[in-house]
Design goal:
about 220 residues; alpha/beta; 8 helices; 7 strands; globular
């Protein structure tokens, strides 16, 4: 698919998300936040759900946590125009609470379609809920963050790079250090990929319940 074709396809998905009016998250003043970035992105960042600022602007990661994410993108040589940023849930949960399994399931088809359109080489999961989608609910983010994993997703291989959510990094100094170090690892991995070197993923061991569409390899 051409870049123009991908862009149109992503716009169609965004329109379909808006047409749900929030689905299980439907409420006055709740706005769609489908995602933004390059339709040809090599790296796709997937967070959990929009917050207050994201809901107001209709863009992902624009609050304090988003500023930290974008700061680390810039400082590590990633151009925002070359990545795609979104969430597993496309509308803000009340009071910024965690998304529920039903809400995650409701928006799954939209996220899956975005992944299929963009075809990223690496998906960076930000926080435990987006990580659970790919690696299972029994996985501990404190144990596997910063470790490259390989999965078979709907017939194609995708590399998964789990990271702490930037909001968690803002709350704890040690998590902030891990978050910043993981960004450096991500840059090293992508730099090797661009130079033709192969980065060996950590062998993935299934733990807990997984998204039924996914199979670890």
């Amino acid at each position: 698919m051409t870049t123009e074709g991908k862009q149109k396809a992503l716009e169609k998905v965004a329109a379909e998300i808006a047409a749900t009016s929030g689905g299980p998250l439907k409420a006055p003043g709740v706005n769609p936040v489908p995602g933004e970035g390059n339709p040809d992105a090599t790296i796709m960042f997937i967070g959990e759900a929009p917050g207050f600022n994201e809901n107001r602007e209709g863009r992902p990661f624009v609050g304090q946590a988003g500023k930290l994410l974008r700061k680390n993108l810039t400082e590590n040589g990633f151009k925002e125009s070359k990545v795609y940023i979104t969430n597993i849930v496309k509308f803000r949960p009340p009071e910024n609470r965690d998304p529920t399994p039903a809400e995650i399931e409701f928006f799954r088809k939209f996220l899956d379609e975005q992944i299929k359109i963009i075809e990223p080489k690496i998906i960076v999961t930000l926080g435990r809920f987006s990580m659970y989608k790919f690696l299972g609910e029994g996985v501990s983010i404190s144990r596997i963050h910063g470790q490259l994993r390989k999965i078979n997703w709907q017939g194609r291989e995708i590399l998964i790079f789990p990271m702490y959510h930037p909001a968690a990094a803002l709350r704890a100094g040690e998590v902030m250090r891990e978050f910043e170090n993981d960004f450096k690892k991500l840059w090293e991995i992508t730099d090797k990929m661009e130079s033709g070197e192969q980065e060996k993923p950590v062998p993935a061991k299934p733990e807990g319940k997984k998204d039924e569409q996914l199979k670890l390899v």
